[in-house]
Design brief:
The chain is about 75% helix and about 0% strand.
Length: about 300
């Protein structure tokens, strides 16, 4: 490879060609074309990374920020999440991601008529962006869990991330199940409260402190609303799609990924809900006993 040029091999191209500067087709990428297989998806990502690496190494006239526009949305999300982890903390990134993705999710559910009208095959353009951000986050978080397993390793988080990534692959690569993929992201609204509990613990707040109690109650309520109470709504849409023409067109792979991942994720949500509810009840009971003890001591005095 000559220093004044670089090789580009895009999906569908018969051979690599050399250019002194990136052609227009390289300057902006879309998510891989509809209907591409898993192998094509991986090749697409690798080809784009092969394009980006020489740009950084050769010191081309392009601004490095402009070159970032060529990265797929998933890899851009991955890089941003990794960067934020280094400049802040895992919990901060998790909270930021939850607020961004949750806001997008709510907007789509309220205003994206195309997706809401056809949950299986509706136009997934906006949903893809939201899920690409989440996919980048999940990959980066999964990598950190593996690298620092002794400190933050949790098999249930690994199962959660893999199940979500398995299902989101079909949304990103094939444009299927946009409504259901986006609906699952409602669960992210509970994440900031879960993370805030950790922040209070690090800062030394006692569990009986007013701030901890308020956050714990809010965490329990929000977790129940966005992960448990919405299950009947979600599965009523799932059941109503069974046997329809659109459902048959999905194919077995997409059908199984959709149903299996949904069931696995919701089983874990129920497990976590039970654990959170028990913790909340313990704190409330502890406060009740302390207040009763204070009241008795006051009377005896």
């Amino acid at each position: 490879m000559r220093r004044e040029g670089f090789s580009v091999c895009l999906p569908g191209a018969s051979r690599a060609s050399e250019h002194p500067l990136p052609p227009a087709s390289v300057r902006s990428y879309e998510i891989p074309p509809y209907g591409c297989g898993f192998g094509d998806l991986i090749k697409y990502y690798l080809n784009q990374l092969n394009v980006m690496t020489p740009l950084a190494l050769n010191g081309d006239k392009w601004n490095s920020l402009q070159s970032l526009q060529g990265l797929p949305k998933v890899f851009l999300g991955f890089i941003v999440n990794i960067f934020l982890v280094f400049v802040s903390s895992v919990r901060t990134v998790s909270t930021f991601h939850a607020l961004v993705v949750g806001g997008f999710c709510l907007y789509i559910l309220l205003y994206d008529d195309a997706v809401n009208a056809d949950p299986l095959w509706g136009d997934p353009s906006i949903v893809k962006l939201n899920i690409a951000i989440t996919t980048g986050y999940l990959i980066s978080d999964l990598l950190l869990i593996i690298l620092y397993w002794k400190a933050i390793g949790d098999k249930f988080f690994v199962i959660h991330h893999l199940a979500a990534l398995y299902a989101y692959y079909f949304v990103l690569s094939k444009g299927l199940l946009a409504y259901f993929g986006n609906f699952r992201l409602l669960a992210e609204f509970s994440t900031p409260f879960v993370n805030q509990r950790w922040f209070f613990e690090v800062l030394g707040y006692p569990r009986s402190s007013k701030a901890n109690i308020i956050n714990g109650v809010l965490m329990t309520v929000v977790f129940f609303v966005v992960r448990i109470a919405v299950m009947p709504v979600y599965y009523s849409h799932v059941i109503s799609s069974f046997g329809t023409e659109g459902f048959q067109r999905l194919g077995f792979a997409a059908q199984s990924a959709w149903i299996i991942s949904s069931v696995v994720l919701d089983i874990m949500n129920v497990m976590w809900m039970v654990k959170i509810a028990k913790g909340c009840c313990k704190v409330i009971c502890l406060i009740g006993r302390e207040e009763a003890k204070t009241h008795r001591n006051g009377k005896s005095a």
